[in-house]
Amino acid sequence: GAGVSQSPSNKVTEKGKDVELRCDPISGHTALYWYRQRLGQGLEFLIYFQGNSAPDKSGLPSDRFSAERTGESVSTLTIQRTQQEDSAVYLCASSPRQELYPGNEQFFGPGTRLTVL
Amino acid sequence: AQKITQTQPGMFVQEKEAVTLDCTYDTSDPSYGLFWYKQPSSGEMIFLIYQGSYDQQNATEGRYSLNFQKARKSANLVISASQLGDSAMYFCAMREAVYGGATNKLIFGTGTLLAVQP
């Protein structure tokens, strides 16, 4: 079966441009997460979607960042007016069911490497 | 505030030996989960093992075991019989409020880079 997929795998953009990153979760997974990983660092939580509930946006670093998810399928992370400090790998993860089970692991995609020149 | 600390930026281990990767955490929530992920140079995140705060026994998964010391707030990963393919970055992570449908975001440490030497 297919895992979490992300596109593009690499994105190089100029400072000030907008970018859109896409995540296709595993089919049937109700929860979807976005994380950012700067070079040599751990992962930072950005945003979480769970079914039709309001998303948890507490990790978004500024109002230049936004994300959407259509039902329980594809999600897009949009970064407006990109800055050099936005350069990082953006990882998407999904998990299979309602988060009532503590050991529910998150399945990660391969990430999108964003470079802002 | 919730926090994960990994104090070992890098570790070396000889092939076939055991190695312990340290992880301490801070949380005021009595209900939490602790995870270890492996990230090879290819970049994917691979789930290794999970320990719940109410679990009575230490978690084990094959060559991986988690040395959970709740009073000390530590959750060290032990890899037995190291293999060359174990060379990777290892991240400890925590999820709070695991019961009750909270956000379930993972808080990650900064990672430990493990190098297995032949």
Give the secondary structure arrangement, pairings included.
The complex is a heterodimer of chains A (117) and B (118).
Chain A: E1 5-7, E2 10-13, E3 19-24, E4 31-37, E5 43-50, E6 65-69, E7 75-79, E8 88-95, E9 107-108, E10 112-116
Parallel strand pairs in A: 2-10
Antiparallel strand pairs in A: 1-3, 3-7, 4-5, 4-8, 6-7, 8-9, 8-10
Chain B: E1 3-5, E2 10-14, E3 19-21, E4 24-26, E5 32-39, E6 46-52, E7 60-61, E8 64-69, E9 74-79, E10 88-96, E11 107-108, E12 112-117
Parallel strand pairs in B: 2-12
Antiparallel strand pairs in B: 1-4, 3-9, 5-6, 5-10, 7-8, 8-9, 10-11, 10-12
> Kindly, what is the distance between the CA atoms of the first and last residues of chain A, rounded to a whole number of angstroms?
37 Å
Helical percentage of chain A: under 10%
Helix content of chain B: under 10%
Strand content of chain A: over 45%
Q: Which value, in Å, is the CA radius of gyration of chain B?
A: 14 Å
Unreliable spans of chain B are none
Major sheet attributes of chain A: 6 strands, mixed
Report mean pLDDT of chain B, rounded to a whole number: 91
Please give the count of helices of chain B.
Answer: 0
Mean pLDDT of chain A: 90
Q: Could you say which overall geometry of chain A the principal axes of the C-alpha atoms support?
A: globular
List the helices and strands of chain B in order: EEEEEEEEEEEE
Q: Which geometry of chain B do the CA atoms define? A: globular
**Total strand segments of chain A:** 10
**Radius of gyration of chain A, whole Å:** 14 Å
SSE succession of chain A: EEEEEEEEEE
What this model shows, in words?
The complex is a heterodimer of chains A (117) and B (118). Chain A has 117 residues and is an all-beta fold. Chain A has no helices and ten strands. In chain A, the strands form two sheets. In chain A, strands 2, 4, 5, 8, 9 and 10 form a six-stranded mixed sheet that branches. The radius of gyration of chain A is 14 Å and the shape is globular. The mean pLDDT of chain A is 90. In chain B, a hairpin with a 4-residue loop joins β8 and β9. Chain B has strands at residues 3-5, 10-14, 19-21, 24-26, 32-39, 46-52, 60-61, 64-69, 74-79, 88-96, 107-108, 112-117. With 118 residues, chain B is mostly beta strands. The termini of chain B are far apart. Chain B has no helices and twelve strands. Helix content of chain B is 0%, strand content 51%. The interface between A and B is medium-sized, with 29 and 27 residues.
